[in-house]
Write the C-alpha cells for this entry.
Amino acid sequence: MPHLQIIAEDRERDRLIDLTGLTCRVQWTDTVAYRPGCLMLELIDPTIRLSHGGRIQLYSDGVGLFSGFIMYISCGSDGRMTVYAYDQRRYLNNMDMRSFSYASSSEIFTKICEDLQLPYQVRDPSTYKLGTILGDRRSNFSILEEALEETALQSGQKFLLRDCFGKLEHVHTDSLQSNLLLGDNDLLTEYQYTSDIRQNTYNAILLVQNNDQKQTRYLAENPQKIAAWGRLQYIESADGTLNQAQVQERAERLLQEKCREKKSLRLQALGDLRIYAGCSFYLSAEALVKQGIAAGSRVMALSCTHDFWPDSHMMSIEAEITQTE
C-alpha cells in the first residue's frame, strides 16, 4: 500500500487542512478523453469546513498525483461527507469564440492556456500545421479535440492533453510508454474483452466537395470488409480549397482510420501507480490469446481509476490494444 497524504485548502480561514486520517475512501480517476480528472473523497468527519474552489492535492509517498479544485460537497445523516474535486482541464470546458489558421496543435494549446491563465507545458510539440479551425461558441476542449484528432489523422502523430499535478501538458503518446506487465500472475485479477463495429466503424468513405456550383464525389472503400460486414458508409464535406489528390488522400486516410474493429479491454488489477491514463504497458492473459491477442501485446490506458481503502489499493482500467506481438 502506498502512503497517501491529502491536503485541502480552507479559503475561509486561509489555512491548509490535512485530511489524510479523516478519509475512509479515496478514488482518483483520470482519462485521455476530453474531460477533467476527478478526485473523490469520503470523509468520516462531516464538520470539516471546505468550500467550492478550494484546492485539494493528493500525494503518494511524497510524490504529487492530483491537484484540483473542490466543485461538489455532500453531507449525509450517516455522518460522512463526500467531496469531488476536478483538475484544471475542467476550465477547458469554458465556451469561447476563436479561430486558428495554419497552427499546430501545440500552438493552439499554448494560446488557449495562456488566454485562460492556466499553468501549462508543451512536453512534446507538434510540427504538423493544421488548416482553419473555427470556434464559434465552442468549448476550448472541443477546439483542442479537433486539433489533436486532425493531427493524428493527417500526420499519424498522436498527442494527448493531461494534467500533471496542476500543470496542463501537451504530450506525445510515445513519451508515456512503460515496460510494466499486467498478466494472469502479475497484478491482473479480472478482464473483459470486446470487439465492436457498431459505432464509428466504416468500410466506405464518401467525401463531397462543392466548387462553383459543381459537386464532386470522392470514394474510398474496402470491398473485403463490405462483403464481411455489409456496407457501413461515412460521409463528409470536403474543404473546397483542396485539390483532387488531397481530397482523395483524405478519403483514404479516413478509411484506414475507421475501417477496423474497435478492440477494447476492461481490466481489474491490484493497484500500481505507475499506470495512469495515457500510459501504455504490456498485457499477457492466457484467455485473451484465444481471441487473437498475443501475450505481450502493448495496450494504452484510456482511463484509469485508483481506489484506495484503508487496507487495499485496486485499479480499474479501460484500455485499447495499440500493438500486438
Summary: The chain has five helices and 21 strands. The mean pLDDT is 92. The longest helix spans residues 140-155.
